[in-house]
Each structure stands twice: as structure tokens, then as C-alpha cells.
Design a protein that fits this description.
CATH superfamily of the largest domain: Calcium-transporting ATPase, transmembrane domain
CATH class of the largest domain: Mainly Alpha
Strand content: 15-25%
Number of strands: 25
Shape: elongated
Number of helices: 30
CATH topology of the largest domain: Calcium-transporting ATPase, transmembrane domain
Strand order of the largest sheet: 8-25-24-23-9-20-22-21
Oligomer: single chain
Number of domains: 4
């Protein structure tokens, strides 16, 4: 059986493959080579799910109550809040359901298949088990298959395994759907398609609904508590009025009005605004949010599980060190751009010192099938970058040759054309090429793994040099480098074959190649720790490589314990009793990534997981926050994630965490303010009659106060800037109540002070024969506006001018209730003189001062 090249047609010799009739029968039996789309959720079901939230149900009840008491304007406002909140939730849900559909896009759109003895190109969706795939450079493997024949076949499996180094494939090895052919040719028989393939199995893991975020869980619990408390308070106020002999109708309207006041109906609007503004700010910082609640969840993250390739590292192989028997050189520079410094002992080398390095790199450039491609315009991350065509390791050798000032690889290949080759494979672990030199001699070039090259059967060097070279190779490998040995020889005649020429060669040296950490990776790790976040590395790479990278970025210490770095093999064998003790996981598969995330979540940690490949999809979906790389990541990862980093920079996650903490702080601040005000209104209604104020406030006045305090002013709190200390405090515990960590105490203190200040103003007005009910109305409203300004983190900041502006507007509307005749009649108020206004102003100042004092004391306590 021979392997057709990418250019061969149906006339080329090839096995028959399946007959079209048999392929049709198998297509009917096994189905199309596609990931089955989940049954779509009906729109009405999505809407009902949103409305089932306890807080929304409380608001629905409040809307019905406002209709009952005839306050249609308030009913409309509450209804609008419910509609907007539901619409946003449904829209985010629909977008999240695209994750499984994206897997189909990852499959090859077309494939070359042997059918009826001819090579045919057809849609990948009609490939069936038993088909023979014809593979060439650049092809995406259309289905899981068993490799029948291969010639220098190199496969990029990073999107499935997470390992950055491509895999050499020989006959009888297996191929997975969605992997990419970087080099060589092959024939493979399809073994599994559609849902039975690797992509299909991962899709089954991803196809699980999103769980509620911590914020959603907290607000649901809070909503249930608030609903019960509201009903109880309504009954208490109603019964209290009846006991005092007030008309049942009057007390029913008053109790319903208080129920509306007790429900912070602006909370969904505040939450939505805070999340939307946070999402917009994060987008400006290269982080795109796919689910709004995820903005807040970022603030509670305690574990950041990150992958290595392209996240902590550059995602591009780079030569960093070259050792030769005559000396060594260090290389600097990023990516495949053929520019950067070369140093010997920390200084610029002389031409003589560079000569052996250039000889090695020129041989490595000839024994090489890669090509460097100059920038073709900006990539997804907005950068102009050199890219590699072929094996990334070989591309790194080409870039290093240019950095060292060696002969240009393209000129070398023209001057010394290749006449023979023995491709790299997993058994030989080396590659050899033979080139014709201008004088007619043959140049033998060899590169490969040190254990396959540093042998007396290959090299002419003595045992001392070989022993020293092996020691150097071991030292470099322990530092996480991929090490290649390079050798060459000049023959007078052309060898019988390239493989036969692999003896009597001269050792040129060793090349240490790695995927270097990003410059900002160490700073990001430090920022995580300062914020109380524990970073964890999960990768498909070799344990030594993972350990080295983790140590270089400061994720683990230079001399970490063995239990901090574990391999997938150790996980499979059950040798790791507690997954949460490790900080580095190497050689992991998709199921193990999922297990690791579940282990952290079972311990009560809020987990963020970063990833870019198909293999990361299940873990991204399982984590509290899934973070996908936007520039180099797959669509599968992007759709399965909650957050997409458009710049592939892990530091953006830290910025997103800051926004999450800002959002949560603003929501808590509104709850303290809104519930303190509502509680104060209820206390005024309960305590007023005991102090000689028969009916402290009328139903219309209560609703007007509620509208002005919970309306624009309350919503504007969602745009408050981040607290200066936000990233210097630990994440809040997952189990913490939304009003925990002192919020209840602050709420009660503020409610008590607002109640006392308002009643004091009302009692003083009655003593002075002023219209005490109007004074009490204005004092209660003013005290709450004082609280909202006093709760600000940054009092005089210009970052949120809407809060002081809305408070000013509310104050003007309060004045309108006293001096605008139509509102006077509607709300049954009377105009006040300077004495009455002064009493209300004292209450406002008292509310402001108490809020500032409580905030200062709370911050010191925390």
C-alpha cells in the first residue's frame, strides 16, 4: 500500500476504500459525522426559569399590591424592572447554549477520502467508520482513526491534550478528530465518528447546564427571607392599626404601601446595571463577559486554575540556550520573530565564539522542514507576529539561526539542496538529511533526542565528551527545556541512504528549546496571592516542563515538595488522595481536569479555570468561572466559558477580579442602603403612634419616599468606583450571606439612626406647632439621601457623578411634593417654612454622618 501525496489524484495507486453504496449504508447506520445538537429550550421555559427567582417573585407580588392600592405608576416601574431583568437573563442563556454547536465547527469542514479506488474530497459530515482518510500537511483529521501508513507524520494534538509539543505518529497509532497535520502524509482508517469520536465525548461532558453563580444563590436565599419578612411585617402593621382603632381600609392600604417600601424593587435594576457596567469596563480591559452574573462571581474567586501553553507562556517555541564543545550561548527574544540578542557569559560574543554556534544552527536549519512566515497583518490579539509553518520546534531553530547572524536558512537550502532524508519517528527519535555541497561532497545533517544521538554508534567523539554532553542534556532537561542534539559529517560520495549515513558523525552540540513564560506572568501570580487567590497549573505537558515553568513564574517555590507536582498517571492510579494539596498537574486529560475542578469546588472554593483548547471545554463549563483565550483559543473554549480574554493575558483575569469585587461591593452597598431605609419606614410607622403621632405617614407619602430613594438614586449606586483596598483583602467566603460580614449590623444601626432622627424631627415639629407629618416626611427622605452619600467609598470622586446628581434630583422632587399644588393634593402634604426645613436638614446630616462613621468602623474591623 502506498501513500498518496497531497497532489495525487484518483489515478494514483491507492487502496480501494469503501464503495459508495457501502458508505451510504454505514452513514444511515451510524449517522452523520457531527456532534448532535441538544434539544433547544423553548422560549417560554427560559422566561419561566427567570421568573422563578425568589426576588423576582417578591417583585411580582409587589407589582400586584401596587395595582391593588391604585399606584399604577409604581406598578409600571416594577414591571419594567422585571421585564428588563428577564430579557437580559434569557439573552445570556441563549448565547451560552452555543457551546456544543461550536464543536461541530471544530471538525474538518471537508476531508479527502478513498472511495471506489479514487481520492475524493467530500464534507466531513458524511465520513463513516471504515473510510480511509488521505492526510497531508495542513489537514484537520475529520474523525477518530487508526493510522495505517505514515511518512514523517507530525500531529498537533494541543487542542485536545493541552501539550504544546507536536506528536510524531507511526503506523498503528491512533488519531483523534479535530487534530491537525503539521507535516508528512498518511493513510488512516476511520474508527469512530460523530458522538462516538473524541470531540463527541467531550461534547457530552460539556452539555451540562450552567449552575447558579454564588451571587444568584445568595440573592435567591435573600429573596426567600425577604418575602417571608415582608408578609409578616404587613400583618404586624395591619394588626397594630386595628388595635389602635384605625379603619381597616386605611390600615390595609398603609400595610400594602409598607410592603412595597420593604421590597427593594430596584435591586434587580441595580444588579443588572452594576453587572452591565462591569462587563463594559472589563471589555475595555480586553475581557469579554458572556454571562452577566459571572462579573460578580469573579470577585469571590479563591482558586485560579490556569493552563500553561499560551497563558503562562508565550505559546511559541524559542531557542534559549545552545551548548557546543567549544562554549555556550544564551538567546533572547520572543516568539518566532528572527530578532533578539545572543550573549556569551552575559556579553556580546566575538565572531570566533559564534562560529561553532552558527555551524550547529546552520546544520539544524538544513535538517528542517519548517518555514518562518513574516507578519501578515494583525492577529486576534491585535499584534503583528511572525508565524511558523510546520513543526514549532524546527521553526525556533530557524529563528535562532537568524538571530545569531548565520547564513540565511533559505539561502542555505538553495546552496545545499537536500538529496536524501530519513524522517523523524518515535522509534528512531532523530531525523537525518543529506545535502549536495557546491564542491560535489555530501553533507550529512542529523538532529534528535540526546539519548538517540549521544552514542558511540552515531558519533566519533570519545567517551569523556559524550559523558559531558549527556550531563549537559540532563541539566537542561531538568530545567524544563526540550533538548536536541545536533551532529554532522561531510562525505566524499553520496551515501546509500540517509539512515545508512547515521554513523561516524561529529557532535556539534545541544540546543535547549522551550515555550518561555510571559514577562508579566510572575507579576500576575503575585497579584493573585495579594488578592487571596491560589493559582494552580493544569497542563498536558511533561511534569518537568510544568514544574520548571511554575517555578519560574513563582507559582511554586524553587524547591517545592513532591506533593505539589503530580501527573495524570498518579491521578489515574489513585496515588493522590487529596487533589487540592497539589499546585501543579501535568500530563492531564479532559476527565482529570474536570475532576480537579470538582475537587476544589467540593472543598467550598470558588474556582476560575482558564483554557483555550477543546480539551478544556468540560472544565471551563464546570468551574464557577470559565475563562477562555480569545486570540489563540478554539471556539469550543470560547463558547463554553463565561469570560473570554481577547488579549490572552492572564493579568486581565486579575483586572476582571477587581471589577467583580467592585460589583459585589456596590450591590451590598445598595442592599444596606435600601433595606435600612425600608426598615426605618416600618419602624417609624410602628413607633410613631407610641410617641403620640397617630398615623406618621400616609400611604402616598410612603410610596413617594420609596420611589425617590429606591429609584434613580439607588440605581446610581451600581456605578460606584472600586474601593482602594479591594485587591488587598481576601475573597469573601462562598457561604457568606449577601448581608454577612457586618452588613446586618450596619443596616440595623443606620435604620435605627434614620428612624430616631426622623421621629425626633416630627416630634419637635409637633411641639413647635409645625405641620409635623410633612416635616417627618421630608426628614425621613432627607436622612436616607444623607445615608446614600455617606456610604460612598470615595466621597468627592468624579468617577460617578450620577449618584450626587440623582440625590440632588430626588431632593428637588421632595420639595416639589411640598410646594407643587398637584403633588400637595395627591400626597396630602403642606408647605414648610425654614424651621421645618431645618429640622429635616438636621436629620439628613445625621444620616450622612452615621453612614460615614459606620463605613470607617467597618473597614477597620475587616
Amino acid at each position: 500500500m502506498t501513500i498518496p501525496s497531497a497532489r495525487q489524484t484518483a489515478a494514483a495507486p491507492a487502496p480501494e476504500g469503501l464503495a459508495q453504496s457501502e458508505a451510504g449504508r454505514r452513514l444511515a447506520e451510524h449517522g452523520r459525522n457531527e456532534v448532535a445538537a441538544p434539544k433547544p429550550t423553548p422560549l417560554y421555559a427560559r422566561v419561566l426559569t427567570q421568573l422563578h427567582d425568589p426576588l423576582i417573585m417578591v417583585l411580582l407580588g409587589a407589582a400586584l399590591l401596587t395595582i391593588v392600592i391604585g399606584d399604577h405608576a409604581d406598578a409600571v416601574v416594577i414591571a419594567v424592572v422585571i421585564v428588563v431583568n428577564t430579557a437580559v437573563g434569557v439573552a445570556q442563556e441563549i448565547r451560552a447554549d452555543h457551546a456544543v454547536a461550536a464543536l461541530s465547527a471544530m471538525s474538518a469542514p471537508s476531508a479527502r477520502v478513498l472511495r471506489d479506488s479514487t481520492v475524493q474530497e467530500m464534507p466531513a459530515a458524511v465520513v463513516v467508520p471504515g473510510d480511509v482518510l488521505v492526510l497531508g500537511e495542513g489537514d484537520i483529521v475529520a474523525a477518530d482513526a487508526s493510522l495505517d501508513e505514515a511518512s514523517a507524520l507530525l500531529i498537533d494534538e494541543s487542542l485536545l491534550t493541552g501539550e504544546s509539543v507536536p506528536v510524531d505518529k507511526a503506523a498503528d497509532s491512533s488519531l483523534s478528530a479535530g487534530t491537525v497535520v503539521l507535516r508528512g502524509r498518511g493513510l488512516a482508517t476511520v474508527t469512530a465518528t460523530g458522538g462516538a469520536s473524541a470531540l463527541g465525548r467531550i461534547a457530552a461532558l460539556i452539555d451540562t447546564g450552567h449552575e447558579p453563580t454564588p451571587l444568584q444563590r445568595r440573592l435567591s436565599s435573600f429573596g426567600r427571607t425577604l418575602a417571608a419578612a415582608t408578609i409578616l411585617l404587613c400583618l404586624v402593621v395591619f394588626a397594630h392599626g386595628l388595635v389602635r382603632g384605625l379603619p381597616p381600609g386605611t390600615m390595609a392600604v398603609t400595610a400594602i404601601s409598607l410592603a412595597v417600601a420593604a421590597v427593594p424593587e430596584s435591586l434587580p435594576a441595580v444588579v443588572t446595571l452594576a453587572l452591565a457596567l462591569g462587563a463594559r469596563r472589563m471589555a475595555a480591559r480586553h475581557a469579554l463577559i458572556r454571562r452577566l452574573p459571572a462579573v460578580e462571581t469573579l470577585g469571590s474567586v479563591t482558586i485560579l486554575a490556569t493552563d500553561k501553553t499560551g497563558t503562562l507562556t508565550e505559546g511559541r517555541m524559542v531557542v534559549q540556550h545552545v551548548w557546543t564543545p567549544a562554549g555556550a550561548a544564551d538567546f533572547f527574544g520572543l516568539g518566532y520573530e528572527p530578532r533578539g540578542d545572543v550573549q556569551v557569559d552575559g556579553r556580546q560574543p566575538t565572531a570566533d565564539e559564534l562560529a561553532p554556534v552558527c555551524e550547529l544552527l546552520e546544520v539544524a536549519s538544513l535538517c528542517n522542514d519548517a518555514v518562518l512566515r513574516p507578519p501578515q497583518g494583525r492577529d486576534a490579539a491585535g499584534a503583528d507576529r511572525w508565524t511558523a509553518v510546520g513543526d514549532p520546534t524546527e521553526a525556533a531553530l530557524l529563528a535562532a539561526a537568524v538571530k545569531a547572524g548565520c547564513t540565511d536558512p533559505a539561502d542555505l537550502r538553495r546552496i545545499r539542496p537536500r538529496i536524501q532524508e530519513a524522517p523523524f519517528d518515535s522509534l528512531r527519535k532523530r531525523m537525518t538529511t543529506v545535502h549536495r555541497m557546491p564542491g560535489g561532497e555530501s553533507l550529512v545533517c542529523l538532529k534528535g533526542a540526546p539519548e538517540a544521538v549521544l552514542s558511540p554508534s552515531v558519533l566519533v567523539e570519545g567517551s569523556d565528551l559524550l559523558h559531558g554532553a549527556r550531563q549537559q542534556a540532563s541539566l537542561l532537561a531538568a530545567r524544563g527545556f526540550r533538548v536536541l542534539a545536533v551532529a554532522s559529517a561531510v562525505r566524499d560520495d553520496e551515501p546509500v541512504s540517509a539512515a545508512a549515513a547515521e554513523t561516524g558523525l561529529r557532535l556539534l552540540g545541544l540546543v535547549a528549546i522551550s515555550d518561555p513564560p510571559k514577562p508579566a506572568a510572575a507579576t500576575t501570580m503575585n497579584a493573585c496571592r495579594a488578592a487571596g487567590i491560589t493559582p494552580v497549573l493544569i497542563t498536558g505537558d511533561h511534569p518537568a516542563t510544568a514544574r520548571a515553568v511554575a517555578a519560574r513564574v513563582g507559582l511554586i517555590g524553587k524547591t517545592c515538595g513532591d506533593d505539589e507536582v503530580v501527573s495524570g498517571e498518579e491521578l489515574t492510579s489513585g496515588r493522590v488522595a487529596d487533589l487540592t494539596t497539589a499546585r501543579v498537574f501535568a500530563r492531564t486529560d479532559p476527565h482529570q481536569k474536570l475532576d480537579i475542578v470538582k475537587a476544589w469546588r467540593a472543598r467550598g472554593e470558588a474556582t476560575a479555570m482558564t483554557g483555550d483548547g477543546v480539551n478544556d471545554g468540560p472544565a471551563l463549563r464546570q468551574a464557577d468561572i470559565g475563562v477562555a483565550m480569545g486570540a489563540r483559543g478554539t471556539e469550543v473554549a470560547r463558547q463554553a466559558a463565561d469570560l473570554v480574554l481577547t488579549d490572552d493575558d492572564l493579568s486581565t483575569v486579575v483586572a476582571a477580579v477587581e471589577e467583580g469585587r467592585r460589583v459585589y461591593d456596590n450591590i451590598r452597598r445598595f442592599l444596606i442602603y435600601g433595606l435600612a431605609g425600608g426598615t426605618a419606614e416600618i419602624l417609624v410607622m410602628l413607633a410613631g403612634p407610641l410617641l403620640g403621632l397617630p398615623l406618621p405617614l400616609r400611604a402616598g407619602q410612603i410610596l413617594w419616599i420609596n420611589l425617590l430613594t429606591h429609584g434613580l438614586t439607588g440605581v446610581a449606586m451600581g456605578a460606584e468606583p472600586v474601593a482602594p483596598e479591594a485587591m488587598r483583602r481576601p475573597p469573601r467566603p462562598q457561604e457568606e450571606h449577601v448581608l454577612g460580614a457586618g452588613a446586618w449590623q450596619r443596616l440595623l444601626v443606620l435604620a435605627s439612626v434614620v428612624t430616631a432622627a426622623s421621629l425626633a424631627a416630627g416630634l419637635a415639629a409637633r411641639t413647635w406647632n409645625l405641620p409635623w407629618q410633612s416635616v417627618l416626611f421630608l426628614a425621613l427622605l432627607g436622612a436616607q439621601l444623607g445615608v446614600v452619600l455617606g456610604l460612598r467609598t470615595r466621597l468627592l470622586t468624579r468617577q460617578n457623578i450620577w449618584l450626587p446628581a440623582s440625590a440632588t434630583l430626588s431632593a428637588l422632587l421632595a420639595a416639589a411634593a411640598l410646594y407643587f399644588p398637584p403633588l400637595q393634593s395627591l400626597l396630602e402634604t403642606e408647605p414648610l417654612g425654614w424651621s421645618g426645613i431645618g429640622l429635616a436638614a438636621v436629620a439628613a446630616v445625621t444620616g450622612f454622618g452615621t453612614a460615614r462613621l459606620s463605613r470607617s468602623l467597618f473597614r477597620k474591623r475587616r
